[in-house]
Amino acid sequence: MRALSRKMGFICFLILVMVFTSACNSDKAGNEENNSKEPVETKNSEPIKIGVLASQTGGLEAYGKQTLQGFELGLDYATNGTREVAGRKIEVFIEDTETKPEVAVQKATKLLEENEVDFLVGSSSSGDTLAVLPLAEEYEKIMVVEPAVADSITGSEFNKYIFRTARNSSQDAVAGAAAIADKGVKIATLAPDYSFGRDGVQAFKEAAIKLGAEIVHEEYADPAATDFTSNIQKIIDTKPDYLFVIWAGANSPWNQIADMKVQEKGIKISTGAPDIAALATMEPLIGMEGFTVYYHDLPSNDVNKWLVEEHKKRFNGEVPDLFTPGGMSAAIAIVEALKKTEGDAKADTLIKAMEGMSFETPKGKMTFRPEDHQALQTLYAIKLEKKDGVPYPVPVLMRELSPEETEPPIRN
Predict the structure, then answer these.
(1) Residue 45: closest CA among 92, 79, 84
(2) Which of 83, 207, 232, 399 is the 20 to 30 Å CA partner of 96?
(3) C-alpha distance from residue 205 to each of 134, 197, 200, 213, 217 (Å)
(4) What residue intervals traverse the membrane (predicted)?
């Protein structure tokens, strides 16, 4: 009996071992099956960080203010006020370049290294912007250029991380030439002596000469000048039919052009109509024909209507100025690109999404040209006129210049 009992006990023990082993193998198989599955993909919930470079001080302070106001409005418009895209909050870091290239580099480096931004935006000065372009390439971050216009930004100094919502000098030039150039017309130019001015004149010359005009004199002045007497006298001595002026900044030459009675000497003035503060100094130029990048009642579309109404609400009844819609367009472009990538802010992914991308702005539809990432856009041929109740000459629309008409040469 004891032998039988021992035998039965041994059999029960074997059964228990087999059950235990089977359970372990089952668990192991289950774990292996779970481990073989692809990991569940979770969306990145980290914030999107945008670093904005602008002239908050220096000669282009007004332009920086306009751009920043437009950018903030653009983020709200494009995200319906949530400041969020694809489940990721948007954080904005603003740095003052002081309108100095060396400071712009320092501030951009801070944004990239300390704030670890996903995008750079800016800046007010072409000189500042050109100094920062190599950093976008070095850190492999998208830089949306606004409002700097030098052709070289999307030309000789272009890299694949640069996208520009601002118009460039060539687009300005085509618009300016369309307003005045014709066969046999003699034109002199006045511009600041740095990349913005020289690129602008070069582009204007190309466009004007194609239309049959002759450039009889090019005059370049110190960008910080307050006395333009000698510059203007040299222009008068060449006896052109037109003086085409390219200028940016508060130290404009308009008062001295009036004081030296340039128009009374038979020389017509033409230029791009500037921001409202500069328009207030252009009373002597009423009747002038030229072009403008933007004036708040020229574009007729829903985005611009929203901008004008919202700007008045937020800024004590003030209307958006020359570079406000550019700041807004830069913000809209970033948000639309992130929608296309579902929140992926890696540069290579964004580049694929942004090349050829069209998006609606206060100036109508813009499109990033794939070859050089320049935004093709509408400009406006205008005439300065006096308007009741407005204390400055008003740009009145002669005709819209379409994105196809103002498309600049590819220079990269």
Answers:
(1) 84
(2) 83
(3) 29, 12, 9, 9, 11
(4) none
User: Cβ(224)–Cβ(59) under 8 Å?
Assistant: yes
Structural contact between residues 372 and 410, judged by C-beta atoms closer than 8 angstroms: yes
Q: Is residue 15 in a domain? A: no
**Domain extent for 179:** 170-292+381-401
Same domain, 260 and 310: no
Number of residues that this document lists for the chain: 412
Count the helix, strand and coil residues of the chain and give each as a percent rounded to the nearest 5. Answer: 40, 20, 35
Cα 87 to chain centroid, rounded: 25
How many domains, in total, are found in the chain?
A: 2
CB atoms within 10 A of CB 286: 13
Q: Quickly count: other Cβ atoms within 10 Å of residue 71's Cβ.
A: 28
Residue 281, pLDDT score? 85
- Whichever domain contains 364, its CATH number is 3.40.50.2300
Pairing of strands 48-54, 88-96: parallel
- Strands (E) across 261-378 are located at 268-273, 289-292, 358-361, 364-368, 375-376
On whether the CB atoms of residues 261 and 239 are closer than 8 A, the answer is: no
**pLDDT tens digit string along 182-230?**
999 999 999 999 888 998 899 899 999 999 999 999 999 999 999 999 9
Predicted TM-score (pTM) of the model is: 0.83
Which among 127, 12, 158 has a CA at the least distance from the CA of 58? 127
DSSP character for 46? S
**Residues 335 and 84: beta-carbon distance below 8 Å:** no
DSSP string, 58-120: STTHHHHHHHHHHHHHHHHHHTTTS-EETTEEEEEEEEE-TT-HHHHHHHHHHHHHTS--SEE
Residues 287 and 205 in one domain: yes
pLDDT of residue 248: 80
Query: Does a structural domain hold residue 87?
Result: yes
Please tell me whether residues 186 and 73 are part of one structural domain: no
Q: From start to end of 178-256, where are the E strands?
A: 186-192, 214-221, 242-245
What is the bridge-based pairing of β-strands 379-385 and 394-401? antiparallel
